Amino acid sequence: xxxxxxSTLGLALGALITSALVQYAPAPTHLIWWTLLAVxxxxxxxxxxxxxxxxxxxxxxxxxxxxVAVPRQARGTFAxxxxxxVAGWALGGLYLSLGPSLAAAATGSANLLxxxxxIFLLCGTGAAAAFALRGISxxxxxxxxxxxxxAGMAVxxxxxxxxxxxxxxxxxxxxxxGFGLAFQGSFRMITALAEPDDRAGLVTAIYIVGxxxxxxxxxxxxxxxxxxxxxxxxxxxxxxxxxxxxxxxxILLFHRGGKPTRPAxxxxxxxxxxxxxxxxxxxxxxxxxx
Length: 290
Prior knowledge:
The chain is mainly alpha-helical. It has helices at about 1-25, 30-50, 60-65, 75-105, 115-130, 140-160, 165-190, 200-230, 230-255, 280-285.
């Protein structure tokens, strides 16, 4: 829940604040970068002052070696969730790349705040939905997310054709709900099928799919916009996302998926938590209690 909510909330606030600074503050090409540097400097100081919750042990270089793996029991569910993950993240790529231009065309306004507002709507409603519906089952979360993606893309498609600003903003908000729910539900359903030892590699695989979907379609859309224009590209992009969302709904309805793994033994709960310490190292487990 924290991962889903705060990552998308950061995108939402970043886009809105940036567009406001560029439109209304001085030095539009410099101020935002100095602001980010100041935020990072404060963050570095805050992290340095934080207490370290983990335990020290040898192997720091080995721990940096990337590991990508999808456990056998999670492969069917992972493959079935790929259309849902791709649709959600590719939607984010559409709005972060072409969203401001589409907003300008829909509203007929040169005010740059509209570009940040549509990204804020998409990511902000996604974060709010992920938080508000965090208690429902992963399967229901994915289904609701994909249906909202499908509905949002349909409304957005019509808004792009008609250049209707209200419909464009409404479609963005509905699609944003799907954006937040689809990823959170997929993440919860897939990771529940992995043993604690396998979750790091599985989470890495999920994010590789997500970030590729976030970047590659947006790059293709940018090239296509140059050759075919903004509206035709956005229409094809929106229709493709709707097809992916519909495919994800079909897979979800006809694929039952695996059973969640049992939680780790209770003795693991006695160990001090920390980064990359799940499950705890054998030396820590074998230490006597007290």
